[in-house]
Amino acid sequence: MLSLSYLRIVCSPRALLTNRLCVYEAFTCSAHCMSTCFPKKDIWHSNTNLGKERKIIYYTDRVSSPRYYCTGQVKVSCWNCKQPLGKTPAFFCMSCKVVQPPDEGTSYFKIMDCDCTFTLDTQKLQKRYLQLQRSLHPDNFSQKSVREQEYSEIQSALVNKAYRTLLKPLSRGLYMLELKGMRIEEGTDSRADSEFLMELMEINEALDEAHTPEEANKIGRDTKGKLTDLTKEIDAALLKGELQTAKALLAQMKYYANIQEKVKEKLSEFM
To answer: d(Cα 155, Cα 93) in Å, to the nearest integer?
Structure first.
């Protein structure tokens, strides 16, 4: 499918002031992009067929930034020097080195330069996080313009959120479901069967009755093994596109993750 590879706005000063006709010059824009990325209420006319030919698109409303159309496909320019940024996401301009605003709609996986997989490399994730925070931390921009300070704060907060979301398997899995259109919250009803709930009750009772660190550690090891198995099952379900199965398994993971936290609390009591 052809994609939108370049977008340029040509507007006269008079048009900008009066909300009159502005002209967008677009190249290699697909029919899907035209039908899904632009508001349906706008009026569009084209003097050529879709394809590699040059097209003139007329927009009869107030001009807004092109970065909100077909997000991730438009070549955005630096707000400071106007040079093309070249890649997405772009944290800094390669020409003038100033920090850039975040790209709309960029996934956490792309921000953290990780494969979009449930079994991602957490060491690579942590390395990327430290690298970005060293360069984007607001303290580095205290002597810069107000605009750069604001962008650094936004970018730094976004990197923090992306890192926290992708670091833990549970939040990572829920986020992957969200990317696939299934918006759910942590703690969603798991529809767990009675047998599973009975097993959880027995584990919790055993943990409450544990009198030595060895007993608590054994429960912790068993729980870790179950979490490892669930990780493999969730990864397989996501790869197959079995979203409901992945959702149910993620709910089970939440229960076992809670038990693991209780094991840590129990062990602290023996110290």
So the answer is: 14
Block mean pLDDT (10 aa), the chain, length 271: 39 39 35 39 37 38 34 69 90 94 92 93 96 95 95 96 96 93 61 84 94 95 95 94 92 92 93 83
Q: Can you tell me which residue has the tokens 């009026």?
A: 43
CA 203/CA 194 separation, integer angstroms: 14
DSSP state of 77: B
Half-sphere exposure of 54 (CA within 13 A, CB side): 5
CB 170 within 8 A of CB 257: yes
Beta-carbon contacts of 74 under 8 Å, excluding residues fewer than 6 positions away, are 4, 7, 66, 67
**Three-state DSSP state, 92:** strand
Do the beta carbons of residue 99 and residue 91 sit within 8 Å?
yes
The strand order across the sheet containing 22-27 reads 6-10, 22-27, 54-59
Predicted TM-score (pTM) of the model is: 0.67
Q: Is the dihedral of CA 30, 32, 34, 38 positive or negative?
A: negative
Q: Which amino acid is at 43?
A: I
CB-neighbour burial class of residue 70 (10 A; exposed 0-12, middle 13-18, buried 19+) = buried
